[in-house]
Model the fold of this input.
Amino acid sequence: MIFWNELVGDGIDVVTLKKPTSPYVKCINSKWVKIKKIDWKKIFDASVDEAHNCSMFRNDHMVREYKNSVMRLSNKFGKNLTCPIDPKLLLKVSKQFGRYKYFTINPRGNVNDDLALSPWPSSFN
Done:
């Protein structure tokens, strides 16, 4: 939602309540024209990285299978790969979503999506 709004600059940002300063692309004579270079680091940050912003699964069986796979990889590479890998980084990027962070960021780890409405860890509030 935020990305698409910045891409075309066609509305008010739901988080900042401001209009983007300039779009990345603009429709000119029925063709999309690049106006400015896309800053991919701004778009693809830890909020879209599933090592940080943890996936949720449909049921406990899927959670167990996923966690078992991550455990095998952690053992193979000799480092902890459980999500969130860097909770401090996830907390930092979550701030960009303002009041919507509870709908876009999952700091609870890989869990059953029945827990989607469970309280956030106190360090993230």
User: Anything to note?
Assistant: Residues 2-34 form one domain.
